[in-house]
Design brief:
- The protein is an alpha+beta fold.
- The protein has a single domain, classed as outer membrane lipoprotein receptor (LolB), chain A.
- It is 26% helix and 38% strand.
- Strands 1, 2, 3, 4, 5, 6, 7, 8, 9, 10, 11, 12, 13 and 14 form a 14-stranded antiparallel sheet that branches.
- A hairpin with a 5-residue loop joins strand 10 and strand 11.
- It starts with 17 loop residues before the first helix and ends in a 24-residue tail after the last strand.
């Protein structure tokens, strides 16, 4: 971040000689006029000398511009991101094809759980396919394929409501995997070091990634383990124009099949805890059936008859 430059303006005090103070007003005016004439006559000469001196200074090569604070900030941020990726599993982490997770998820209101939690089975096929099955019977599923979303129940398959789908797409497009796999490869992306901070009660370094659409995500990287602790981003509601902030905390890391994996994930919305996920098992690069991400609408909830 740039800091404001401070400037101080000091007004010089003109020293008057005894002779000048004794001079009559007319003589004083003539003396000032004479000085102005001399200064104006010397101005072209001074400008010529200045340009000549500047021309004699060696110019920096075009291929090696002088380093500026912004370059140093960007370089440090890139090094921190590289170190974080290495801690997560290196280049192989960025090439993971799919993830399978099981666990329990909790919805919270004002920081309190609204129920005993729900069992879930989650399957992710990069870059943009996901299936989540919930309940012990796994009889409810949510399928996401590209920018489409579906809910599968005993009634059939229906498209997700636009509000629910938009919330999912917003979280996906700001997810850690999406930012590291997609944003960093896009032209015009900016990476900035935002300084030290505390995240999850741990010392961290803040790195912000800003894409070409001026959308940004800030990642808090553990100063000791170099693993991501927290990710945050903000967005403006298109209806009320209010700014909202969403955070995600990663904790309980374990080495799993060569990758450091957080087994605890907590989401916050405008500072309020809204969801927690605790993983029981995680596996990578399984042989997933591609048809599990296929879905076709069989009914429209809006057209169902009302119950009497």
């Amino acid at each position: 971040m740039s800091t404001a430059e401070r400037c101080s303006l000091v007004k010089p005090k003109a020293a008057k000689s005894a002779a000048a103070s004794a001079a009559p007003p007319l003589a004083s005016k003539l003396s000032v006029a004479s000085k102005l004439i001399v200064m104006r006559s010397l101005a072209p000469l001074l400008l010529l000398l200045t340009l000549s001196a500047a021309a004699q200074q060696p110019s920096a090569p075009a291929t090696s511009p002088p380093a500026v604070a912004g370059d140093e900030t960007s370089d440090k941020a890139k090094k921190l991101l590289d170190r974080m990726i290495q801690a997560l599993g290196g280049s192989a982490y960025l090439e993971i094809k799919n993830i399978t997770q099981t666990g329990r998820t909790y919805t919270l209101f004002h920081g309190q759980s609204t129920g005993p939690g729900v069992l879930f089975w989650r399957f992710v096929e990069f870059p943009d396919k996901e299936r989540v099955e919930v309940t012990k019977q796994r009889d409810i599923a949510y399928v996401y394929n590209g920018d489409k979303g579906y809910e599968i129940t005993y009634k059939g398959t229906a498209q997700l409501e636009s509000k629910v789908l938009n919330e999912y797409l917003r979280r996906r497009d700001h997810s850690l995997e999406w930012v590291l796999r997609k944003w960093l490869k896009e032209p015009g992306v900016a990476i900035l070091y935002e300084g030290p901070a505390i995240a999850g009660d741990k010392p961290a370094d803040q790195v912000s990634i800003i894409n070409s659409e001026n959308d940004s995500v800030t990642i808090y990287i553990d100063s000791q383990t170099h693993l991501p602790i927290k990710k945050t981003y903000s967005w403006r509601d298109p209806i009320d124009r209010l700014r909202n902030v969403e955070d995600e905390i990663y904790d309980a890391y374990r080495p799993t099949e060569g990758f450091m994996t957080p087994y605890s994930l907590t989401r916050f919305y405008n500072g309020e805890m809204v969801n927690q996920r605790f993983l029981n098992t995680v596996s990578y690069n399984d042989q997933l059936n591609s048809t599990m991400f296929d879905a076709k609408t069989t009914y429209d909830p809006a057209t169902l008859p009302n119950k009497k």
